[in-house]
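Quick check before the chapter quiz. The format below is the same one you will see on the exam, so make sure you can read both the input and the output lines.
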Amino acid sequence: MSSEVRIVIEKVPEPPRVTERVRAALADNHQVAARLDGADPSRLIVTADVLGDHDDEPGAQTTAQAGAAPFRATVFDPVANRGIELRGHLDRPEEAEVRSSTRRPLPTSAEVEAAVRTLRTDARFPADAIVYRSMPPLADVERPDGSRARRLTLGIYRPSGTPRHRIVAVDIAAGEVDWEPAGVAAHTDGDHGDCEERLPAEVLPLRDRGGPAMVRMRVISGGEELWNLVVVRPRDSAPAGNGSGVELRQVRYRGRLVLRRAHVPILNVRYDDGTTFRDWQNTETRFRAVGQDPVGWGWRVCDRPPQTILESGTDAGAFQGVAFYYDDDDGEVRIVSELEAGWYRYVSDWRLALDGTIKPRFGFGAIKNPMTCQRHHHHAYWRFDFDIGGSRADVVEQGHAVSGVGDEGWAPITRETKRRRGAAARHWRVRDKSSGYGYRIVPGEHDGTADAFGISDLWFLRNHPDELTDDPLMDDRAHLDAFLNGEDIAATDVVVWYGGHFVHDQHHDPQPHQGHIVGPDLIPMVW
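Here is the expected output.
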């Protein structure tokens, strides 16, 4: 690391433990007991998000303010395979409104461990097999009475056996294994898994060793503080249950607020045969990072470039969490983590340049499995909650060519809308109406253009606390169009959703691995 540039990592007050508060209040909410038929509270899966801005800057609010914050939670009974949604305030969660919900949370670590035990005790389980996380994570099935059984999927890989790849479904409550489940990849010992170099690791190879949920990062160059922001681990990122990779909050450059929040709440994939998945981004996996841990486990300031699966070609590594590194050649700080979603491996990467440029990046990889050698399309959707200078009076403008190369005109966007990238829509900017300070949004060279499944490339919306992510409804597409209702976005609190689209074709992949990374450049204006 350059002696003139320092990365300072500091602890911040922990956010309200909203999930614990909601769980503690369940016994006092009679509607919950009625909707879930008196299910054992200890078996319920609870995920909750605080809505609003009170948690954007840890420690900035009083306990009373934090306690009065609104929340939204999902309470799910994995045995009955049934859930509900709660909406209320943290200071009186027992009075929360109860609604029906079709959401099915991801399997918990305890469920996965129970499913592995059930699988290994099955007489048909091969002794030489490696068990790994597969896609989709669930393969529920309808019972004769109309209810549905919750069934976790697991991948079985046999390096020298047959079939080499098989996906099974495990009903933990019934203690049963379905060796031929519908709706999952067919078992095979052909070439489908051979284009991926990385062997699958045994399921749950790592345990969470704790560490803070978030930290404050400051970047100091020549005695001047350039960057000051809060970084949230993928494990603790919002929305609860699925996460959004490395999440940034209260991002300030040279003392001036740029982004109130920035993350990737939506990530999905579609194969050419029509198979689709909605992926999650709160499961951290191992990668190589060498350095010091100034605030405890999960946060490392590196003295050499960290190596994710994209650089090293493997899941091998002893670190799990968020790594920081200053690249002296590029003049930028990297904030990076590696994520696991079934057999997929993702890299959540932010690059903050000394000149104020922000480079959000997302990378794509995988381990050996029955699917990813087939051509497929990844879609990552960033959510940028701009708040230039903290005034919440920002304007959005679209750049277009006027009369020649480099000659740029700007047209205001005053109503909520969406846009595709193309010759007539090359880049955009968000700026404070009064000061003129702002950021240009310039697409990356690998970001592609949305197909029918990807929907669009950008959405420009008015900020609403309950629009942290979409509702996937009946399919895995990004349902951001549901937020488009024609609201005025001139001189207001603006949110920009940005989609990066990557065609992953293992037989025609660009080399080197940089072709597996998407993301725009956010370039400062007037600063």
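If your answer matched, good. Confidence is low (pLDDT under 50) at residues 58-64.
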